[in-house]
């Protein structure tokens, strides 16, 4: 593996959507997420990390060291078993081992997962799937659904403690929610389908109605952090991994097209590089140097050209450099 990064980074990402749904809320009929108090659009960090994972998976195609731990169609347990098999760890034996042996095994597994899965090395992961308990390990109850004895509960607790728990790996790369620069007005558009679902329905109607949510236009801003300290101490996130992250952010919508999302584009990536591991300035002061303003406030924005983006390079603190990609 390459050497971990030695510099802290903070970054700002600007992306926009045109006639699409950037991040639907399943609890609101897939309506685009909005702040109910301000009307600003929201895209969750989980959504953005999903797109980064998808790009890496396409770009690397399971090249060694660049597997994706959290992806569709693959259970976490099946990925976990790869570590057991490679490290020749017997699940049953390790559950009964003394604590020092379990801790040593957990450390080996964490290292294996960080080395082999890019998203764990980047974003971290909660490794509680390694906690193995008996499927039949349930509290005994009587006909009134009351506990029969405290011994059963005690035995259950002891069995859980004997599981292999690799804990939580905190990744060096963290993203916040993206928020639109201005408020957005989600619109639900009615659509008509001429293909009827069932033959019985076709006897009574010739069309079916549906709907889709869109944001006519929205420019979103997300902020992120890269910790060299966590990269060195925990996951081994390297300079090669960092460059792949920048590439993924710039191209995260290019291979993720769908009619529902409309036209989404990463417009600008502004990277603040610190000259030290722990950083040379607070992140919020660096983010404040990036200003995004609508040119004509008398009418709603409908394109990226309706905004100006400026970075006050004259106010950059000593020990911090700026790189802009667009």
Can you give a write-up of this model?
This protein is α+β, with helices and mostly antiparallel strands and 326 residues long. The protein folds into 2 domains: 9-61 and 172-185 and 214-325, no CATH class; 76-116 and 128-165, no CATH class. Helix content is 30%, strand content 27%. It has 10 helices and 14 strands. Strands 1, 4, 7, 8, 9, 10, 11 and 14 form an 8-stranded antiparallel beta sheet that branches. A two-stranded antiparallel ribbon has the order 2-3. A hairpin with a 5-residue loop joins β2 (24-25) and β3. α1 crosses α9 and α2 crosses α4 (99-116). The radius of gyration is 25 Å and the shape is flat.
Helix percent reads 25-40%
Q: Indicate the radius of gyration in whole angstroms.
A: 25 Å
Mean pLDDT: 88
Order of helices and strands: EEEEHHHHHEHEEEEHEHHEHEEE
How many domains? The number is 2
Give the termini separation: 30 Å
- Quote the beta fraction: 25-35%
Q: Give the low-confidence spans.
A: 135-148, 153-162
What is the count of helical runs? 10
- Number-wise, the strands total 14
Largest sheet geometry: 8 strands, antiparallel
Instruction: Indicate the overall shape.
Output: flat
Q: Name the structural class.
A: alpha+beta
């Amino acid at each position: 593996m390459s050497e971990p990064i030695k510099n802290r980074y903070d970054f700002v990402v600007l992306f926009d959507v045109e006639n699409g749904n950037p991040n639907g809320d399943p609890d609101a009929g897939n309506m685009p997420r909005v702040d109910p108090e301000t009307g600003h659009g929201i895209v969750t960090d989980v959504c953005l990390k999903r797109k980064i994972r998808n790009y890496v998976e396409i770009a690397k195609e399971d090249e060694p060291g660049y597997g994706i731990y959290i992806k569709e169609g693959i259970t976490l347990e099946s990925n976990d078993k790869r570590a057991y098999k490679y490290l020749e760890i017997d699940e049953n034996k390790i559950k009964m081992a003394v604590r020092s042996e379990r801790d040593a095994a957990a450390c080996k597994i964490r290292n294996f997962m960080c080395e082999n899965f890019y998203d764990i090395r980047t974003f971290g992961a909660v490794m509680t799937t390694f906690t193995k308990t008996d499927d039949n390990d349930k509290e005994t109850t009587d006909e009134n659904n009351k506990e029969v004895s405290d011994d059963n509960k005690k035995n259950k607790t002891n069995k859980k403690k004997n599981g292999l728990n690799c804990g939580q790996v905190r990744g060096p790369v963290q993203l916040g929610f993206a928020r639109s620069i201005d408020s957005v007005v989600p619109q639900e558009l009615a659509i008509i389908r001429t293909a009827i679902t069932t033959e019985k329905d076709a006897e009574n109607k010739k069309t079916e109605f549906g709907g889709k949510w869109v944001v006519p236009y929205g420019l979103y801003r997300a902020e992120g952090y890269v910790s060299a300290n966590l990269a060195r101490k925990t996951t081994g996130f390297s300079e090669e991994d960092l460059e792949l992250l920048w590439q993924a952010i710039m191209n995260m919508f290019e291979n993720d097209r769908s009619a529902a999302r409309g036209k989404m584009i990463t417009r600008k990536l502004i990277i603040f590089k610190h000259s030290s591991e722990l950083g040379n300035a607070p992140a919020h002061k660096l983010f404040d140097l990036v200003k995004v303003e609508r040119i004509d406030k008398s009418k709603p924005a409908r394109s990226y050209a309706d905004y100006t983006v400026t970075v006050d390079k004259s106010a950059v603190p000593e020990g911090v450099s700026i790189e802009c990609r667009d």
